[in-house]
Amino acid sequence: MLPFLLASIALTLSPGPDILYVLTQSISNGKKYGIATALGLVSGILVHTTLIALGVSAVIKEAEVIYTVIKVFGACYLLWIAYQVYKAPASITLNTQAKPQKSLLALVKQGFIMNVLNPKVTLFFLAFFPGFIDEKLGNVTRQIYTLGFVFMLQAFLIFSMVSIVADKLTVFIRTNEKFAVFLKWLQIVVFIGIAVLILI
Q1: DSSP symbol at 136
Q2: How far apart are CA 177 and CA 162, in angstroms?
Q3: How big is the chain by its Cα radius of gyration, in Å?
Q4: What is the pLDDT of residue 154?
Q5: pLDDT cut 70: percent of the chain above it
Q6: With bands split at pLDDT 50, 70 and 90, how would you rate the model's confidence at 61?
Q7: Cα distances (Å, whole numbers) of residue 180 to 27, 88, 93, 152, 174
Q8: What is the rounded distance in angstroms from the CA atom of residue 160 to the CA atom of residue 7?
């Protein structure tokens, strides 16, 4: 379990689309919105873990048409989000009475869908998990879910810490108009970038 935990932490901390998405949400709206995004992203891991436990991921990997359809659908969803960000005004406010562009629940759902529609996450787990599963211990399904929950927990804690740190470091620039424009385009680039990575 310890080697798996250390490997999971290293993977979560490595620069990637998920941690950057959490970071941009935290800077845009505050730490609780970043944490809500993190909750959605890690919740999606449960779906991928279940697919591995049921052996569905192996079928998806072999069925090229299904895999391609999932990739295209996921990429289109991300491009649609990028378009929504593009249409939204480039403004950030610290006024707690102002309505955020998205509710906490909406960010949880968006993070969840983003994660689930990325088949590369399932394939990554399919390659990553077997190295930490011991058939001699019995009940492989339970071992897979245990590893899945451990990965989810550490990822959520790390993403939450990133949200809190980002919130503290960026309070003084959230009202900066130029930074608001920069952040808007950063989010657009992030979503388009994730879409491209899914399709590659």
Answers
A1: G
A2: 23
A3: 18
A4: 94
A5: 75
A6: low
A7: 10, 11, 9, 31, 7
A8: 19
Question: Which residues have C-beta within 8 Å of that of residue 7, sequence separation ≥ 6?
Answer: 128, 132
pLDDT score for 94 = 41
Rounded to 10°, the helix 31-54/140-170 angle is: 160
Rounded to whole angstroms, the Cα distance separating 4 from 7 reads: 5
First to last CA, the chain: 32
CA atoms within 13 A on the CB side of 120: 15
If you ran DSSP here, which 8-state letter would residue 102 be given?
S
Kindly tell me if the per-residue pLDDT of 16 is higher than 70: no
Q: H/E element holding 34?
A: helix 31-54
How far is Cα 172 from Cα 92, in angstroms, rounded to an integer?
12
Q: Which residue has the tokens 């960010």?
A: 107
Q: Which pair of structure tokens corresponds to residue 43?
A: 């919740």
| Secondary structure (3-state) at 98 | coil
